Amino acid sequence: MEEPLPAPPTDTRDDDLxxxxxxxxxxRLSLLVERERFARKDAGxxxxxxxxxxxxxxxxxxxxxxxxxxxxxxxxxxxxxLEMLGDALAPVLAQLxxxxxxxxxxxxxxxxxxxxxxxxxxxxxxxxxxxxRFLQDTxxxxxxxxxxxxxxxxxxxxxxxxxxxxxxxxxxxxxDYASGGAAxxxxxxxxxxxxxxxxxxxxxxxxxKVARVAxxxxxxxxxxxxxxxxxxxAAWIYQSYFTG
Length: 244
Hints:
The chain has helices at about 10-20, 25-90, 90-95, 150-180, 180-244; strands at about 105-110, 115, 120-125, 130-140, 140-150. By secondary structure, the chain is an alpha+beta fold.
């Protein structure tokens, strides 16, 4: 035999509404209290969800702050590594000629900290924050001269780079000497031009002084002649009109 299907669940709220009309005042009061309790329970669950979201936001903010602090710590570690490399290069830089000013070694902090050797060569850290990358800007783009996690290898590569740059500087000076001292001739011409300009300024200043002195003398004698003429005119008027 087939078992009978189970009866559909009944809605207790409808039964409560049906019984509320025939219930006593005390029963109706108990039903209202129970409904308010369920309403408070639903509101409490919403507050709990809002509280959990607020705590999740606080945790997200803390994680973001920790990540930012980690990024700043990594940048500080990069700067410290580059500064240590710069200190290792100090004995090499001390041997440079006194008149050589093409090398200006120093750490430039920023989003990507770099240790500049000169205007076209610099060292930066790789993505792993441990490997040094010695790069140079050329006419054909940026090229890597050396990549290593060993600071001594970087010091050797930078020393060789400085030596080659010094040889290029000597060649440039030799070419200037072989060309008849063109740079020196230009310097002499520039000095002569400055001397002529200074002489012109001196002549102009002397001429201005003479002109000012002459103008002062003209004004002085003109004023004296004017007052003398006034005196003569006053004497003539006095003798003509008052003495007669």
